[in-house]
Amino acid sequence: MKIAIIGAGWAGLAAAIRLREHGRAPTVFESAAIPGGRARSVDDVNMGLIDNGQHLMVGAYTATLDLMNALRPETDEAALLNRLGLHLESADESFRMKAPNWPSPLHSLAALLGARGLTFHDRIGALRMMISLRLSGWRAPSLSTVEQLLKSHRQSERICRLLWIPLCLATLNTSPEQSCAQLFLNVLRDTLDAPGHHSDLLIPNTDLTALWSGVAADQLDMRYRHIVRNIAIDEDHVMVDSEPFDACIVAIPPYAVKRVLHVTSNRDALTELLHMLDQFDYRAIATLTLQLSRTWHLPHPLLLLKEDHARGHYGQWVFERAHAKGPTQLAVVISDAQDFLKHDRDQFVRSIAEQIGEQIGRRMPSRYGPMPEIMHHRLIVEKRATFAAVPGLSRPRTKTAWPRMYLAGDWTDTGYPAVLEGAVRSGLQAADELLATL
Ligand SMILES: Cc1cc2nc3c(=O)[nH]c(=O)nc-3n(C[C@H](O)[C@H](O)[C@H](O)COP(=O)(O)OP(=O)(O)OC[C@H]3O[C@@H](n4cnc5c(N)ncnc54)[C@H](O)[C@@H]3O)c2cc1C
């Protein structure tokens, strides 16, 4: 039986590996020259291997972690991921929230109650909201936005600014006034109201492709640099650019599915699917990787930054890329970003450097000193980094009306916003469904 997988992002590769585990040998078509899709390494002339975007995972990414461990049984998790407990802190130290080593969900409630930078009123308000959401089974009113949810639970301006809005942007990449409250709650439920280690923060300790997608691809029949242009389905086959297969898993983003799908059977289902694909809108993420002239450790591997757009202080998070060889590398992340590539690049980089230096300098100048000079930088703006996680979006299931075709990707009906774990779970599910029909 010949099976095609279109797209070698985390969804397509997860599907391919699951099929391989069951004795199948799928062919993976990928338009790029390397695997990983939106979570991949980029070879920079000056800095070596960097990532297309800094990725943060959490302990709740169980399917991804299982896959990674199965593919790299000989490698200790610590070599791949820097696992930190639930600990969020701003660069200038004005906000800090750290969970004690207590059973869940007490650890997250204690983190809120002990948070620095919040008033007694903020903390009690947050605690009340968390308890009330837990009692309601983490259900948000239908079609409500994160902003409406926070308002209905009377969250103060301060806690929204310091905690909820950064979390919303980091997880949904969509502004709180537009983003879907239910997707936000699904993330909170699975990280905070789950076994304690599910709220751990996991920062890749290698470049993204080395994490697992490169290892997976080495075990598969890969067709790189092949842009699939036509998928047609008849009773007996799926034709991928005129090559016959018995079945396929289409693991490319919605706008790409729309372009390649040329089916003639089951017109009603096709109209419905195309309508769903049309509803997706996209949001950008910008990542600025900085190579400093010498070692300069951040106080914590990831820090929240205070924004001030009037001064060009656009950075939202700064990460220390611990695995980078040589002097310190930092990655600054801007979610729901504009197209910063249009800006004066040098001024943009200078302003971000000023933002980091100034905010960390507010801690203990004698300990951290001024931020070292920037030797090299690379700004990558992924314009369609994620789909806009708005309320009321109907997302297709992996199983389609065509028995030979399955869908996979972070945009399918995973219950999550566009995240790595959603992509992996969708790929595994599509593969399991396909295997079940064989
Ligand atoms: C900058 C950035 C930061 C992010 N940060 C985080 C984070 O911190 N945590 C998190 O969980 N998630 C994060 N995400 C989201 C995460 O990267 C995605 O959810 C995930 O990578 C999606 O995987 P996928 O397999 O569904 O899709 P994709 O990665 O888009 O894979 C689709 C693949 O199909 C290929 N393709 C497309 N069209 C064709 C065609 N016609 N023929 C052949 N191949 C084709 C593409 O080249 C691509 O490789 C981030 C994303 C970006 C861009």
TrEMBL record:
Q: Where is the Amine oxidase domain?
A: 11-435
A molecular function annotated in GO for this UniProt entry is: oxidoreductase activity
> Superkingdom, according to UniProt?
Bacteria
Concerning Pfam families, the annotation shows: Amino_oxidase
Q: Any idea what this protein is called?
A: NAD(P)-binding protein
